[in-house]
Design brief:
By secondary structure, the protein is an alpha+beta fold. Helices cover 66% and strands 10% of the residues. The protein has helices at 3-19, 25-38, 53-83, 87-118, 134-149, 155-168; strands at 41-42, 45-49, 120-122, 125-128, 171-172, 175-176. Strands 1-2-3-4-5-6 form a six-stranded antiparallel β-sheet. Strand 3 (120-122) and strand 4 form a beta hairpin. Helix 3 packs antiparallel against helix 4, helix 4 packs across helix 5 (134-149) and helix 5 (134-149) packs antiparallel against helix 6 (155-168). The radius of gyration is 20 Å and the shape is globular.
Length: 188
């Protein structure tokens, strides 16, 4: 495609998203992906997007609920505990809430990629994963804890390792993805 074909889609999506206070965003994503996938030619065939705006909305609501609870606890519960004199308990609850939040962010990232692959067809073949994402959530959690404990010096390893974890659980048809990305030394 070209920008002249995509511009009306982008402008109408922006307008409808603004008018509906963001609710149309999910159907806008669906329209954009329909266009982009249908204009992506790969090995003698076009890609096809089969996702719906309703699926994207329900996924957002689920993620917002699961991630909103720890944010609510952090915003209001911790302040109430400190105000009532439970400073040590507030610290413990803060740490547990942050760990919970980090775990579910990992699960959400994994499931988002799995969803995009699952709704992408090429020559009638779709991608995806049989893994629900919980293992990736634990991997995300402990690797980011190691990164935090190293004061950020392990960020390249953490991100590369998580990339490999995500992609190595995905497949397209009966072909498994095989990512062997490696971290190169930044400072020699």
């Amino acid at each position: 495609g070209n920008w002249r074909e995509f511009l009306p889609i982008a402008l109408s999506n922006a307008l409808l998203t603004l008018v509906t206070l963001g609710i149309y965003r999910f159907w806008a994503i669906k329209r954009e992906r329909d266009y982009l996938w249908s204009h992506t030619w790969f090995l003698d065939d076009w890609l096809e997007w089969t996702g719906t705006g309703k699926e994207l909305l329900l996924g957002f609501i689920t993620a917002a609920f699961l991630l909103g609870i720890p944010l609510f606890i952090l915003q209001f519960g911790i302040q109430a505990m400190v105000y009532r004199g439970y400073g040590n308990a507030a610290i413990a609850v803060s740490l547990l809430t942050l760990l919970f939040f980090n775990f579910f962010v990992g699960v959400a990232r994994f499931r988002a990629l799995r969803y995009r692959l699952n709704r992408t067809y090429w020559k009638g073949i779709r991608g995806g994963s049989d893994e629900p994402g919980w293992t990736y959530g634990w991997s995300n959690l402990w690797k980011w804890v190691v990164n935090y404990l190293s004061l950020g010096s392990a960020v390249a390893w953490t991100m590369t390792s998580l990339w490999n974890d995500r992609w190595n659980e995905m497949s397209f048809g009966n072909l498994d993805f095989d990512s062997k990305a490696k971290v190169r030394p930044v400072l020699v």
